[in-house]
Amino acid sequence: MFEIPLVIAVNLIPVLFWFWWFEGRDPIPEPRALLLRTFAYGAVGYVLATLLELDVLRLLGIPAASVLMLMIIAALEEAIKYLAASTIVRHSDFDELIDGLIYATVAALGFAFLENVMYSLKYGLDSTFFLRGTLTTLAHVLFAAPWGV
Hints:
This protein is an all-alpha fold.
């Protein structure tokens, strides 16, 4: 019964850390509402990516354990995170170079958060948190950083 709140709370730890770390580099902090919206779009992006990945791989007839499959999934995930972050570029608060990095990071954190929650619920928190919570959260952020800048 308490598993879902615990999974959410534990998976928020790396997300909050990386959010704090990146946001601390912004001399003019972004509005919380825009950051939360971008985070939510990133999380919704995970759902969209999961649905699209299955369809794209099935449509193209690509084997599930191939390098090509990994490349397609990576490109699709980055495109979806880009779309989540790009919703902010015409906003008046998007006014510094670092803002692209901040919003890309927040979209990636939303994506990684929901992905990690789903993995934790499926495979167990104890077997997924340290690897997924530390490595994949940062990986999503680092993959999003270049296009954010």
